[in-house]
Amino acid sequence: MPQSPSTEDRYGLSEQESRALCMRVLNSSKAEHVRVQVQSGWRGFTRVATNRITTSGGSEDVSVRIVSVFGKRLASIQTNSLDDASLGAAVRKSEELARIAPENPEYMPELGSQQYVPVSAYYDATGQMTPDARAQAAVYAIEKSQQSQTVAAGYLDVRAGTRAIATSNDLFAYQQATGVSSTLTIRTPDGTSSGWAGDHANNWANIETERIAEDAVRKCNDWRGKTALDPGKYTIILEPTAMGMLMSRMSRVFDARRADEGRSYFSKPGGNNKIGERIFSTRVTLRSDPAMLDAETAPFTNDGQPINSRDWVENGVLKNLSYSRFWAEKKGKEALPAPSNLAMVGGNDSLEDMIRSTQRGVLITRFWYIRGLNPRTISYTGLTRDGTFLIENGKISRPVNNFRFNQSLAELLKNIEMVGPSVQVAASENSSVSMPIIVPAVKVRDFTLASVSDAI
Amino acid sequence: MLRPKRSDGLTAHNITTALQHAIDQRLSRRDFMKLAGIAGLTVAAVPSQWGCGPASDPKFNPVPQERALIEQAIEAVKDAGASYGDVRISRHWYESITTREKQITGVSSTDSYGIGIRALVGGSWGFAATRILTTDSVAKTAKKAVEIAKINNRIAPSDVTLAPIDVVRDVYWETPHEIDPFDVSIEDKAALLFQINEAALQTDGVNFISSGIQSVKEQRLLATTEGTLIQQTFLRINPSVNITAVSADGRDFQTRGNVAAAASLGWEYILGLDLPGNAPRWGEEAVMKLSATPVEPGTWDLVLHPSHLWLTIHENVGHPTELDRALGYEANYAGTSFLSPPEEVLNKLRLGPEFMQFQGNRTEVGGGATVGFDDEGVPAEAWPIIKDGIFVDYQTTREQAAWISDLTGITRGHGCSYGQTWARIPFQRMPNVSLMPGEDDYSEEDVIAATDHGIFIEGNGSYSIDQQRYNFQFAGQVFWEIKNGKKHRMLRDVAYVGRTPEFWNSLAMIGGEQTYELGTTFGDAKGQPGQSNAVSHGCPISLFRNATILNTA
Hints:
In chain A, about 20% of the residues lie in helices and about 40% in strands. By secondary structure, chain A is of the alpha+beta class.
């Protein structure tokens, strides 16, 4: 673990400071039980558009959430005013609200002290990053763009902060973390082509500023002169970012209660679920692990439950669904928090192999505006963006128009034919630091490109 | 008729239509002041200087400590060498109460308080924000904002210039309301939600219901180096109800959600919706959806109810008319716009029939984006965006006005600057963008009667649109087949897909003022880091010819 800085205006609170803040709440609480969550940290950003830095800045904050409990009545108050009077008022307010709140029969008692896997998600290279360093990275992209007579729009999101949880049953958890997301869109001045590249990591040292600029410029150049292609069912090759944007949706679906209540793909008639059944291609293993290198997350939830490494799908078989503590008790199962990151285990197929083996297919760089259509089939709609290409006879034959897809992700995971090495990708649509997603490029048959999009 | 009937009580729509008469499409300043007076704005007769005496607007009453800090911050950014700066001290309260069936699932309240400072050096912005409201911290934060602006101006300079403004000082504005939602107890809110749940669960076949009330209050103090000093209080409230029916064999489930609009109003708005009275109907609709007829894909006319159409407007009129977006400023996230470049589309591109009028409007009572002043101190106004079917103007801030002033003849910004909280840099955000009701005053029945083979859609389902706002695919909550001018039977799994210019040019008929309603989201997303904006879109019931319908099952 790196030394915790004691100043709160940059990295957030140290473990000691967090514990002291939690104790101020615990000591003044008159509730039967109380839980405290402390978040602190700093966020810096630099935006580029029209080959200039448009906005840049930083903000820092510390907030405390207090959950006061009387019997099964509880209420939660969050504030960032931490002087004695304000914090005391927040504690009192949470107690007042908890007393009058109707009972929540699903409330589970506060946890006592827990064992967590030791995980550090803090990287000094990220935590020490200055506005100057961000501006230098932005200028690199701007210069590359100017050299190729294109127009850059990009975003650098840098975060450094801490989380702490404490309960009146002597639980205490603390973690420091950093995260960074760097993304770049390169467009031709006439708006007829667009390319994109990006990275997401906890460690700034692993963000490849030069490669991002080169890839985005190359994509934009490759996609120039796109021609029409009809919608239909295609074999598709998803680059890792495209796959990651879809798999980030999969991180939310492994929920036992929704399955048991008949509201999920994993539901079985009669109020049961599909754990233990083969549901996807044997090439699919989906795993979460808070200790995953450079994709580390907190090893605990907001109520202090330990998060451990877990396989959700192993070689196509559904191994686990997440159980809230309440649902686990009701069903006689072990409580299991939802994934905090998500990795699909990679394979050995290179992108070149996938293209070479494809008679006719479409290569997709990334997606946009992905929205749910049907939770029973895990169907989504969305659009391709920033580089879409036709593959014919083992070669990329031409750039083509964008498409809207309508596709069940369950079917996609059944129809996987080739799998590349897994890499971390910038999977969120707004390119902010978000849940780490580690995925391979994949080749998939029978993917529905439903209609043409004229957008560039 | 299973459509929810709103009570005659106070609704966003009622208030809006009452005030709408007063709003000309090009609002004069005097008219605005008259209207703003009704809507809760008071304006100081004689602007006071920094620190001089009590404000002449009796409602303008910032905490002395805040006033001292904001003035200190303004002086600090000037001293550090900024050519312009603006400072926001704001406090935000969010309260959420949620239930499912007969139990509470969450009672939560959040407040966030801090200062955000934006500074301009040369033509480059810098921004810094902190929650620590002490003189030391404010001095340090002001310095940081200017320092970042200087770095940017040195390394990759930009060329920001700000449009002129009439400086307004010592002014207070608040969201028009009768009952502050934060004055209503958690018990009363929970009691209402349990009434809704109970009413819905009485319907045979309803298995689950979740409901909630989200309330937002913001107190904002704004100062600029030009002398602006404005205090505002914004209120917003969002009811949510989601009802699920699972089929007897467990193989299917259907939901009815998005039943009522959010609004920038008080608790009286929620009471006026009669949510418990309507809940059984929504429950019946969820159950009916299980056995509704799967839609036959193909070409159908669409009759879009305002509870559905408002979000379509948001996506394919609201977003593409953001000027920063049209010029590439959002290219790395939300994308660009088919309404670009401005010189090729402004006053040239026909987007719909002669009777189609859209206006940007930050004064519409109940609207999510309705304010007294924007985050740069520009007074709220209304202006035409599409006039007689032709695209005539974008949404702008002070920074953007000059980008198109030679095309529009308008040298001032339209007051579209907003930062979500003290911790976020303000930038161009969407005003309420509304489709004006028709002069022929057609009713909902008239519009349905004009449809032979169509689908009537209420509420919002899955919404997705491309990054230039051409290709969209939108779904609803409830679908009715219209056959020979009459509602015939319920359909399911309906989505329409289209291309924006063709879609609005297929608008064949719109209802009158009596059919006009607002829809509202608190979650209009834009920018990096992402910021949420509250915004409404009003529209009458509308008929579109020959839409392409998909079956999404």
